[in-house]
Design brief:
The structure is a single chain. The protein has about 280 residues and is of the alpha/beta class. The chain has one domain: L-arginine/glycine Amidinotransferase, Chain A (5-stranded Propeller). The protein is built from 8 helices and 15 strands. A 3-stranded mixed sheet has the order 2-1-15, with helices on one face. It has a 3-stranded mixed sheet with strand order 3-4-5, covered by helices on one side. The chain has a 3-stranded mixed sheet with strand order 6-7-8. Strand 13, helix 7 and strand 14 form a beta-alpha-beta unit. The longest helix is centred in the N-terminal third of the chain and has 18 residues. The chain is globular. The structure holds arginine. Arginine binds next to loops.
């Protein structure tokens, strides 16, 4: 149980936001662990660096969000996707257990980073896979947990013992949307963007029952990773090329859209949201 809170319940949402990012100095497509990755379709390093910098500048300069930086490590090309470090709840860091051996070397890097900064590190038994914020997203006080391709459904039990919050497991059914954050994006406490094609009937029902205002997106928008948007208050940051209807829908709801070119990161199956981990200041 997380002991920092007198009633055993962490306060959600997080009180003061900071983000963790990692420069793409060693970013490349070195292996294929999702359908987007093709080692034959290589990353253009300088372009990736510019695209990442544009996201960093937007966050730090325009939106004035504090961003902490994790030092890149040679041989760990996906470390740039810090959303998969784990899940932070107050001063507790629930560490990821990566599904694929290719990414398991990142676990100790993330763990060390948070331990050194005074976080309490919580690890789940090794046999259970859990990929952090990639598969665990809050809508108000409810945690939606994507499972199947990366995270195991059984993790649900462990997380509920730690968090004491309602957790709704959602099975992912389309390999292209292998993490929950590729097809489900909380916008605020009552609304989400979601791609219905990535879920089964139970998932539809769970989302429609528990989210007052779910906004479905088209296949074309989903394939451009629009659900992998990074939402900071009313700012929605995402890869460019959003369809007109979706742009209008978001603007009508009072969101400001920031479209960036993140094409180099799409090559590894990621976009704006995966490049960032939410933490408290
Ligand atoms: N290549 C990485 C992987 O397959 C991309 C991770 C994207 N992260 C995310 N939170 N969706 O693990």
């Amino acid at each position: 149980m997380i002991s920092n809170y007198p009633d055993g319940k962490p306060a959600m949402p997080l009180p003061s936001l900071a983000l963790l990012m990692c420069r793409p100095s060693h970013y490349t497509v070195a292996y294929e662990i999702n359908p987007w990755m093709k080692v034959t379709r290589q990353v253009h390093q300088p372009v990736a660096a510019r695209q990442w910098q544009a996201l960093y500048d937007l966050l730090t300069r325009s939106l004035r969000v504090p961003v902490r930086l994790l030092r890149p490590v040679k041989g760990l090309p996906d470390l740039v996707f810090t959303a998969n470090a784990g899940l932070l709840v107050g001063k507790a860091f629930i560490r990821t257990n990566f599904r694929h051996p290719e990414r398991q070397g990142e676990e100790v890097i993330f763990e060390r980073y948070f331990r050194r900064r005074g976080y309490r590190v919580v690890t789940l038994p090794r046999q259970f896979n859990f990929e952090g914020e990639g598969d665990a997203l809050w809508v108000g006080d409810t945690l939606f947990l994507g499972f199947r391709f990366r995270t195991d459904a059984t993790v649900h039990e462990h997380l509920s013992k730690i968090l004491h919050r309602r957790i709704l497991p959602l099975e992912l059914v389309d390999k292209r949307f292998y993490h929950l954050d590729t097809c489900f994006c909380p916008l605020d406490a009552t609304s989400v963007l979601w791609y219905p094609g990535a879920f089964d009937r139970y998932g539809w029902k769970a989302i429609e029952t528990h989210v007052p205002d779910p906004v479905p997106v088209s296949t074309a928008d989903a394939l451009r990773f629009c659900c992998n948007a990074l939402v900071i208050d009313r700012a929605v940051i995402l890869h460019g090329g959003v369809s007109k209807p979706l742009r209008k829908e978001l603007e009508r709801r009072g969101f400001d859209l920031y479209e960036l070119d993140l094409s180099e990161f799409l090559k590894a199956g990621g976009s704006a949201k995966c490049l960032v981990l939410r933490m408290t200041r």
